[in-house]
Each structure stands twice: as C-alpha cells, then as structure tokens.
Amino acid sequence: MKIGRNLPPELAALQEEIEGYARGYGLDFFPQIFEVLDYDQINQVAAYGGFPIRYPHWRFGMDYERLSKGYEYGLQKIYEMVINNNPCYAYLLESNSYIDQKIVMAHVYAHNDFFKNNEYFKHTNRRMIDEMANHAIRVRRYIDRYGLEEVETFLDVCLSLDNLIDYYSPYFEDMKLEDDEDDGIAQEIPKFRVEKEYMHEYINPDWFLDEQRRKMDKEKESRRRFPRRAVKDVLWFLSNYAPLTSWQRDVLAIIREESYYFAPQGQTKILNEGWASFWHSTILTKKAAKDSEIIDFAIAHSGVVATSREQLNPYKLGIELLRDIEERWDKGRFGKEYDECDDMRTRTSWDRQLGLGREKIFQVRKIYNDVNFIDEFLTQDFCERHGLFGFDYNRSTGRYEISTRDFKQIKEKLLFQLTNFGQPFIYVLDANFENRAELLLGHRHEGVDLRLDYAKAVLENIHKLWKRPTHVSTRMDNKGRLLSFDGKEHHMREFEYVEFSG
Amino acid sequence: MKIKQDQSRFRQIVRGQIKQNLRKFISKGELIGRQGKETISIPLPQIDIPRFRYGTRNSGGVGQGEGDVGDPVQQGGDPNQPGQGKKAGEMPGEHAIEADVNLEELAEILGEELELPLIQPRGEKQIATERDKYSGIRRVGPESLRHFKRTYREALKRQIASGTYTRENPIIVPIRDDKRFRSWKTTTIPQSNAVIIYMMDVSGSMGDEQKEIVRIESFWIDAWLRSQYKGLQSRYIIHDATAREVDAHTFFHTRESGGTMISSAYRLAQRIIEEEYPKEQWNIYPFHFSDGDNWSQDDTARCMQILREYMLPTCNVFCYGQVESPYGSGQFMKDLEQEFPDDERIILSEIRDKDGIVGSIKEFLGKGR
C-alpha cells in the first residue's frame, strides 16, 4: 500500500547506515520501510492517524485542515510519522534537510524497537495498515447502502464513546458475563420460630407465608442484576447487548478495535518518545552526525525537547528519566543502602561502577508503561533538578497558578493525569435499572467531577444505541447525583453514590 | 485525495449546513501566527466530539520551570486553556488554527448563517447590455482584422485547385478573394443592476455607538447584496435638518449635530433615483438608519407622503432601521407602523445594541426581495 515515493539513493544509503548503528546498540526491530512524502501527503496521513487509508469521517478532514493551515502559515510541520505495524512503516517529509532525515531515521528505529518489544503493544494488530483499509471498505459499503448521513451520524455516536474501553482487557481471555445463579439467596421461606407445633398456624398464618414468598421472589428478582459485575468495556457491552442492526454492530466493533489499537500508544507516550529521543541523540552524537552537522543537530534536538510551563513535554520528561535511570544503575544509586543514605556528599559522589545502566533501560522499555514508569522512577532529586511543579485553577484570581513544589503532590498529580489517560472511569452498572431495561452507568469518582455538558451529550448518544433511558451516577460538588436522559429531556436528581470497582 | 471529501464535510458542518447537533461543540480554536513582527491570530473552528471527561476547572496539572507557589502558570496568554493531556499518535507539535476567507465567502457564510434566501431580481427590471464579440468571419474588412489562418487556408485551397502549388516550393500568395476578416456579432446580455442608498441620521442624538452599529450593519448588508448582484452601486446620504450626499468614508465618520428633518434625506434619495436609476433597469434598496427622532409631525407627514407616493412603488423594498439611543424618542418607527401596517414593501427593524445587528440583518434581507 504505497502512497509515497521510494527512498532516493542517498537516503537509502543513510537508512542502511543508521540501521547498522541501531542494531549495533542492540535495538531489535521489525523490518523498516521508509517512504518520502510531500507536505500535503504527510498532512493527510497524519490526519488519518498515520495510516494511508481510513473510513470517511469529517474529523479527519478537520485534522487535515488544521495541519495544512499550520504548515501553510509556517507554524508547524510534521517531521516524521511511524506506524506500529509489521513491517514498520515510517514517512519522511520530502523537504526535510539531510540532517533532519538522519535524526528522524534514528528516532524511528527506536520507536520500531519499542513497538516490537514493549509489553503493552503485545496484543496490538501488527497488520493494522491492512485492517484499517478493511475497515474503510466496510464503512464505505455501509455508506453506499444506507447513506452517508446515516452512517456518519452513527460514527459520531460511536466516537463519542470510544474512550469507554478497558485498557487491560486484551490481557484477559474473551470476556464472558457469567450466568446468573441464585447463589447466596435464601431458598427457604423465612418463618417465625415456633416452639409448639400447634401454634404454627397462628404465628405463621398462610397469608403471612404468602407475603413472605412474594417478598422473597421480589428479592431474587432484584438481585438478578445484569451485568453482575461492573463492566468497564462499555463499548463491548453495548455492541453485545444494545438493540443494534448488524451494520451498526459492525461499525461499533470497528471503532472499538481501532480504539484498542491506539490505546498502548497513549499509555506509553512518555516512555516511547523518551526512548526514541534517547536513541536518536545517542546515535547522532556518538555515530551518525558529522562534525559539520552537530550544530544543526543540536538546534533540531533542542526543539524536540523544549519545555513549557503549562505542559510537560513527554519527549523531554522521557529522555531525562531514561538518562537518569541509566546513570543511577551505572553508578549503583538504587536499593536500600542508597535510599537510606542521607549524607548529601556521599550521595552525590556515589558510584559503585556497576555499569548496569544500559541493561536497565532496555528492561524498562520492555515492561513499563507511563504510569508505572513515573511511579517507579520519578524521584525527588529528579523533580527538583528539573523544576517540576503542580498547578491548579485558582477561583479567586481566575487563573492557573503554581500550587505546589512538593514532590509527593506533584507525582500524585502526574499519575492522576496518566491513569486511564486522565479520563474518568465509567462502568456499566445495571442494564435493567429500575426494572425497566434502562441503562445505568457509574462514574467512579476519583476526586474530580465530570464535565456536565459533555456528560449530557454522551448520555444522548448512548440513548441512541440503547434506545431506552440512560443514566450515569456520579458525584458533583460532593453530592451523589444521577444524570438521566429519557430520549427527550435531561434530568438530574440526588442519588446515593455507591463505591464500586470493576 | 479522499481526505478532501472529509475536509469539505467538516466545512459544511462548521458552516451549519449539516449536522446541527454538532454545532454546540464547535470551538473557536486559534492559530497564533506571525506577520513581520506582529503576532496575528487566525481563528480555526474545531469540533469537539463529546466524551466523558473531567471538568477542566478543578483538575490542574504539572508543569516545568521557574516560579514560586502562587505564581501564575502562564505569563499572559489565555488562562482558560491550560495544557490538556494530549492524545496519542506520533505527531509532534500540534497547535490549533484557520482560515482564509474572502469577502465573497463571508457573504456566503452570512447567507447560510442567517438562512437568507437568494434574492430574485425583478424580472421586468432586467436591462439588456449589448456586447460586441468577434466571433464571425467576413470577406471584406480592414487589414488589421485579417484572419491569417483562414486567409492562408483559402489561398492554399485555391492554389492546389489551380495546380500552382508545388511541394518543393510551397509558397502561398493570397489574392484579394482569399482574404478573410474577423467580424463581430452583437449579443445582448441580460443584466440586473442594484443600487443601495444608505441614509443615516447624524443629528446630535446619534452617538458614536449608534453610528458604529449602522456601520457594521451596512457593511454586512453591502457584502450580502454584492454577492447577489454584479455591479452593485452604493450611495450615501447623511442628514440632520438638511441632507447631502457624501462618500463612504464621510458617511461612516461624520458627526454632525442639530435638528432632524428626515424628509430632507428622502427627498434627496428620490432625486438621485429619478435622475440616475430608472426603476425599469435597477433594483433599488434604500436603507434608512435613525434613532427615530424627527423634528416635527409635519415633517413626518411629508416623509410618509414621499414613501407612499414615490418610494414604495419604485423600490424593491424600503428598509428602516431604528437604532436605540438614549436621546431618541423612537417615535418615527411607530409612525411608520401606523401608516403602513402590514405593508410588505417596507421593512422595519429595531436594533437595540450590537448583538441585535444579526437579527436585524435577517429582518431586512430575510424576505428575499
């Protein structure tokens, strides 16, 4: 599926050279294919999330327009793009300078290695380029049959739910909801204890027993909750249990599949970009860059790792953490003895000459994602050295202000941002809410409220699939709330917020 | 490219042609660019697909750099947009943006936005322009119009027929009979012309704000009508107790003071129309903006007379916009309502403030006359 041009001879030679360095450093990658694209092609591919072919949808057009305008006004350009696929495809911008291409290639080989080896990518489809094209064909077929308006509107609905997946479910076997059993519910009709047999019909008269039986049936009925356990993969649940036509079910499955494919890239942004930056700078400075190119390299590299006050740059954070880890494991600055040492002088000159750094970072790239990477390797030293701070919105001044320089709080904030992509945890709680086949979702409140107008819009969209009233239970301003949409109107009422877990 | 279809689809949504339900999620993103030393921002509409997400106000984030607790994170800039956790994908450096729109497109967008109907030019008022087009051939004519190719061909035909043409020496000499000349045909092209006559009350009671409103409104009216008519002409009249015709710049910048005699403007407009814009050939749109204060009831009566006897039968539609001002009584509008109840040829619109402009434009142009 070729869209660009083959490499011109000088770049082909360069690829061979860079690949040699990468292999020499022990990177282990899929076969790598580079294509050269002009800016318009690269904008298109970027808008398609890196793929040459996607199904028709206006949001790709929106991204394309944004990228094109940004390029035309000279404000931004895309240097490179790489797709997690086997073989791994990467695109080079035609107008890049030779040194830029060098950097990009080195960067790409590290991404490729990461895709192949990182644990979180293990379950991704390595033929995704083909799969995306298949999806495009299927969606186009539905459009031919049912009309653009209808299919696109349905896609809008699906996309508004595409974050409601369970990022860990690829690690489990096929999901099944266990059959309902009546375990744990009393089988016998409860009666009052009777000392004397002849008193029985007075203490437990028939009408009382009937009432008890009715009560028990009702209890059984209400316990027969579906699903029995909260389901995090809302998309999966809806595609199985919502009253959809077969093409709708298929479209929903397509969106879900693509969502799962992209998920690991979101889960490992810092580590992945850090890894790639670590290697492009290592390969360039140690091997590939000529003396005459080193200034150009430095300029390009500093652009990649530039910091900003409002947002941590994942490239910067990642590369610095990896370098920090490499140094610590080279010098043996880890473990009980080092952690408990509180003499600053000993600490700064601590060097056991273990030389374990390289090995350690290869291990890190294999088994970590952003959350446990930060959790494990973000140290107080690092935090102070790089001037990290936490910020919050100050209601009284109406602006965002630095709220903390405390290591623990910063780390907590950062982890919160990364966990579940910094998105709320939403579960399916009950598909027969109020015994009226209404759908109850639950938001597991982690200290931050939902954005109300968006939540309402999503409820409307779920209603389009479920076709019965939909609800989400959450907490707002510390009070339990139930947001409902009945097909016509939104309601909000007080509702007991119950803690739950998936 | 397939993505162009997606792009035009997106533009349709932004313009509100399709998918009204998504409109509330359109945000005015912007692209900060540089033009020389100046920073310019280019607005770029973005549509957010709604998803469950956190309210931004109470989340905050982590940044990097100098500063003590309590210092603002952003120096200057928009405090409403802190760094949001960006989504995945291997795309470094994304920013927001958009769009170069020319006036014609703006008018188009305006038309769609306000659901303005396309204006139907009045049928009998189409004038025919005559155009000469050199599309024919004649046997006689001036040398300057000689058609070289045709002449050559005729001469060649003749020489071959008479056997004077030789392959070895292919010289063609045209004689008088061979010559062909270009000639013209006169075609008539129907054309519809339009003139807008803007009249504005500049008496003491019309303040800068009122004039600003008139300025904005007439700009958009102008843009819309220009997109509908080729060769649109605009005339500007200002009046207090007397009226005079001015150029566009003066129209928008003058501040006079004094009394108000609306009839003076109407009389001047009438004269301009009579002299230069015969109603058989022109679509005529007079717009009058005032704060509704007139000097006397006598003058108002004179206005009504001009309107009834001349303006309404002559013009496509007569538009009166009344800008609310702290000094004006707003009486003129009531008088007009009383005089011409339910008359389709006159459109009245009250403009309370700047926000009222859009609605007022719609009232004026929404009828498609």
Summarize the structure.
Chain A is of the alpha+beta class and 502 residues long. Chain A is built from 20 helices and ten strands. Chain A has helices at 9-24, 39-47, 58-72, 98-117, 128-146, 148-159, 200-203, 206-223, 234-241, 246-267, 269-288, 294-304, 314-331, 335-340, 344-348, 357-367, 370-377, 380-385, 407-418, 452-466; strands at 32-37, 80-83, 88-93, 388-394, 399-404, 425-433, 438-444, 470-476, 479-485, 490-494.
Could you walk me through the main structural features you see in this protein, from its secondary elements to its overall organization?
- The complex is a heterodimer of chains A (502) and B (369).
- Chain A is of the alpha+beta class.
- Among the domains of chain A are: 9-118 and 268-291, Arc Repressor Mutant, subunit A; 305-418, no CATH class.
- Chain A is built from 20 helices and ten strands.
- Chain A has helices at residues 9-24, 39-47, 58-72, 98-117, 128-146, 148-159, 200-203, 206-223, 234-241, 246-267, 269-288, 294-304, 314-331, 335-340, 344-348, 357-367, 370-377, 380-385, 407-418, 452-466; strands spanning 32-37, 80-83, 88-93, 388-394, 399-404, 425-433, 438-444, 470-476, 479-485, 490-494.
- In chain A, strand 4 (388-394) and strand 5 form a beta hairpin.
- In chain A, helix 11 packs across helix 13.
- The longest helix of chain A is centred in the middle third of the chain and has 22 residues, at 246-267.
- Chain A is globular, with a radius of gyration of 28 Å.
- The model of chain A has no long low-confidence stretch (mean pLDDT 88).
- Chain B has three domains: 1-50, no CATH class; 127-189, no CATH class; 192-365, von Willebrand factor, type A domain (Rossmann fold, 3-Layer(aba) Sandwich).
- Chain B is built from nine helices and eleven strands.
- In chain B, the strands form three sheets. In chain B, strands 8-7-6-9-10-11 form a six-stranded mixed β-sheet, sandwiched between helices. A two-stranded antiparallel ribbon of chain B has the order 1-2.
- In chain B, strand 6, helix 4 and strand 7 form a beta-alpha-beta unit.
- In chain B, helix 2 packs across helix 4.
- The radius of gyration of chain B is 31 Å and the shape is flat.
- Chain B starts with a helix and ends with a helix.
- Mean pLDDT of chain B is 76; it is low at 75-101.
- Chains A and B meet through helix 2, helix 3, strand 2, helix 6 and helix 10 of A and helix 1, strand 1, strand 2 and strand 3 of B.
- Strand 4 of chain A pairs antiparallel with strand 3 (61-64) of chain B.
